[in-house]
Design a protein that fits this description.
Low-confidence stretches: 1-28, 165-176
Strand order of the largest sheet: 5-4-3-6-7-8
Largest sheet: 6 strands, mixed
Shape: globular
Radius of gyration: 27 Å
Structural class: alpha/beta
Distance between the termini: 46 Å
Mean pLDDT: 82
Number of domains: 3
């Protein structure tokens, strides 16, 4: 039979070129690994703590001061629910918010509530999620990031939202497509073994020869850089910034998995944070998690910053802006001018506008038309992540 002969020590397939040795660190943070295991193993207490940190950040809260939270609940419970949100109140008290509201005027319940609030918050401090002064720690941010990431994937994967379109250009990074003759520059893992064997048999060869080898042509996934512009102005507080963050996580996960580069600009009255396009999902995830709502919106600064951040090469360059208000700082003409500069630099701009007013929609149309991008006027928050992903897929 021919197959054993194909593995003969004289088989040309076994000739080897030198292999480049890559050096780097595979070490990881033990604390982060513990958090990840807790989230993956559905440790409900840990997950709720992560959700509480996320809610705090999304509402511009930096710390969990037990006395202040308790006093706010006693003095004006409806205001407390508005400021802190139900997730935080439930986490720090151990009670359903509706139950608290019904019993908050009962003296015995107040005493019990005060003790529980302090005990539960001190436990978060003991776990390292909060610091000495009850401020959110780096460990707290890591936990919040893991919880947000796992929740977003749980939301999208069952819905099949991680599909994609692929170009028909050759690339070693794509999926198997057609077959071609093997070249020395091809990777051995791309050898189409069955096709190569069939060719050898058809030619009457007893051993697999170099000329018999076939390798897969891979479909290209292109050379793409995407920057996600996340509006962190005050009007984004709460649910808006929550869904905006999760959409950014979905974009970064999918694009980086596709070997595209993703950057981040967090903006409000100025550019607050930025990450140049990269393949570091962990960094993007953590920076998104840390975002807190601020004041106004400056669209000029974010577009100017993106021009600086994109590479100067031939990659496809795309800026996705998610906002609920267009340009509350500066003039409309400034926005139009800088959009033209972006287009001249080969950058397209899409805008996902959350409940924009008439004037905002008009300005968004001007920006996207000038930069050859797309405008998505969004009224239902639950669709934001799907829209962001679709805009990304359309680039490919």
């Amino acid at each position: 039979m021919i197959l054993p002969d194909l593995l003969d020590k004289n088989n040309p397939v076994q000739d080897k070129n030198s292999i480049e040795e890559l050096q780097g660190s595979m070490q990881s943070d033990p604390e982060e690994e513990k958090l990840a295991h807790s989230v993956m193993e559905a440790d409900q207490e840990t997950i709720e703590e992560g959700r509480s940190v996320n809610d705090a950040l999304n509402n511009g809260i930096n710390s969990f001061q037990p006395d202040m939270i308790f006093e706010q609940m006693v003095n004006d419970f409806k205001m407390a629910k508005n400021v802190f949100g139900e997730t935080i109140l439930k986490q720090v008290s151990g009670y359903n918010p509706d139950y608290i509201e019904k019993n908050i005027k009962v003296p015995e319940f107040r005493r019990e509530l005060k003790n529980k609030v302090r005990k539960n918050i001190e436990e978060m401090r003991d776990a390292g999620i909060l610091g000495k002064d009850f401020e959110i720690t780096q460990k707290g941010i890591q936990l919040a990031a893991l919880v947000m990431y796992s929740e977003e994937l749980d939301h999208l994967l069952p819905k099949g939202m991680f599909g994609e379109r692929i170009h028909k250009k050759q690339s070693i990074y794509g999926e198997h497509d057609d077959i071609k003759p093997f070249k020395k520059s091809d990777r051995y893992r791309d050898i189409a073994l069955k096709k190569s064997i069939k060719t050898a048999i058809r030619r009457g060869h007893k051993k697999l020869e170099i000329d018999d080898l076939k390798s897969f042509i891979r479909q290209s996934k292109g050379n793409l850089e995407v920057i996600y512009g996340l509006d962190s102005s005050g009007s984004m507080k709460g649910k808006k910034i929550e869904v905006a963050k999760k959409a950014g996580v979905a974009l970064a996960f999918r694009a980086i998995e596709n070997k595209d580069k993703v950057g981040l600009i967090v903006f409000g009255e100025e550019v607050k944070e930025s990450v140049y396009p990269c393949g570091d999902f962990h960094r993007i995830l953590e920076e998104i998690t840390k975002v807190k709502p601020g004041k106004e919106t400056d669209m000029v600064s974010v577009i100017k910053k993106s021009i600086e951040m994109f590479s100067k090469g031939t990659a496809t360059k795309h800026l996705i802006l998610l906002t609920d208000a267009l340009q509350t700082i500066g003039s409309k003409n400034e926005v139009i001018d800088v959009s033209g500069m972006a287009r001249a630099a080969g950058i397209t701009i899409s805008i996902v506008g959350i409940k924009l007013d008439k004037e905002g929609i008009e300005l968004a149309k001007n920006i996207t038309e000038l930069s050859n991008g797309k405008l998505y006027a969004v009224s239902a928050l639950e669709n934001v992540d799907k829209i962001i992903l679709q805009d990304y897929y359309d680039l490919r």
